[in-house]
Fold:
Amino acid sequence: MSQYQAVKGTKDIFPEEVAQWKYVEGIVHTLASLYGFSEIRTPVFEYTELFQRGIGLTTDIVGKEMFSFQPDTKGRSVTLRPEMTAGVMRAALQYNLFSLAPVHKLYYIGELFRKERPQAGRQRQFSQFGAELLGVSSPAAVAEVITLMMQVFESLGLKELKLRINTLGDTEDRVRYREALQSYFVPFYEILDEASRERLEKNPLRILDSKNPVLQELVAGAPRLYDYLNDSSLRDFEKVLFYLAERNIAYDIDHRLVRGLDYYSHTAFEVTSSVLGAQDAIGGGGRYDGLARELGSSSDVPASGFAVGMERLLITMEKQGLLTTINPLRPLVYVVVQQQELVDHALTIAWRLRKAGIRTEIDLVARSMKSQMREANRIRASYALFIGKTEYTTGSYALKNLLTSEQTTLSLEDVLQVLHQPATKERINL
RNA sequence: GUGAUUGUAGCUCAGUUGGUUAGAGCGCCAGGUUGUGGCCCUGGAGGCCGGGGGUUCGAGUCCCCUCAUUCACCCCA
Structure:
């Protein structure tokens, strides 16, 4: 075991896996732009207050999961971003995007950091892609982001995902519901676990989220937010459901879906994967009309968005056998040197092939010809090009098709021509 | 932060009630063809058995501590 290993909760992504990441990212870029979203890249760290304000002081993320530090001895505390939305909203407000146009549609792919104990599907550094639809307050907007998210899943071929959806109502609804919940739970104070007792004061909605089996019965009997919604909140939610039905997006209404971030209002949703284990949320999001005000905006900037965990997405794809067909690019031709004194000539040939746009590999550690051929086979090159005395003097090179074992002697120009034929470009995997 | 789990070769793992120079498969390197891969055969390199301390004549095996891993809780992607 080497002395140094990657920091707890982080991992290295090696070339084979990078090919898978690029594939998924490609789909995200394509579909996001199909839906009219443009990419934004914000800094990986922000002033700590941004997250405290934006995500909420009562959340676990802000309470105990942030990587915070001070870049300068007397400087302000900064924090590695634990989520994306606050940073995107900050950027939009800072540059006053809404003076240019009332609506902005932004998407992102980026790394996030949360100081949690790692486990299956959870790391301290992880990646999300997501989209934010800023400046519209409507069921159509939420439906828009949900639809985009679901189309990404569909395009990737994911199966057995479950979309759960709920409404949290507007601020007034929640104030009334909050009171109702508190008066329901207070008589059972003795039964509640420590975490729930704390939430009773700060954020009673979160008690509904508890997985504590002891509380299940109690939670099941709690009043439903749904019964406290005013007419316009109800109509809003029903409209969202209508859009989903219209687009053949299956969903389950889950009245207990609350989600951990304080800024949600009205629609909240979450997608889970049945193959993931304990951390089964693959994506989620909702509407957060109050966030901009929370960040000091003088005008309302209603918004909707979603975020999807890249690692969990890839784990799900892996388990569903959706990654086996994605392979990194293999070299097309392997230049084999037959006498060591011809190495320099071979390097020149390799360079010429590469200049001509042909993926070329060549041995750099003076290995035997047998080894070079084994290497060519190992990395699945399609062709071997032999550089020997005969070739050097005649200018004709032996080109061997490694799949069919056919070998022909050609001038370098003819070699280039053969290698440029599209039909010969990819070797079929054996 | 809490609980449990596992640390032996690059990888996956053996290693008997503590007993000589710690093994296998795969991978890697070389050779079997002095100019030709895959399959096969032969050989080789590579381990302070996670680290520290203790018990013992003797520890990979037992005890303690520590570090790390994994899974779960909490919560989330």
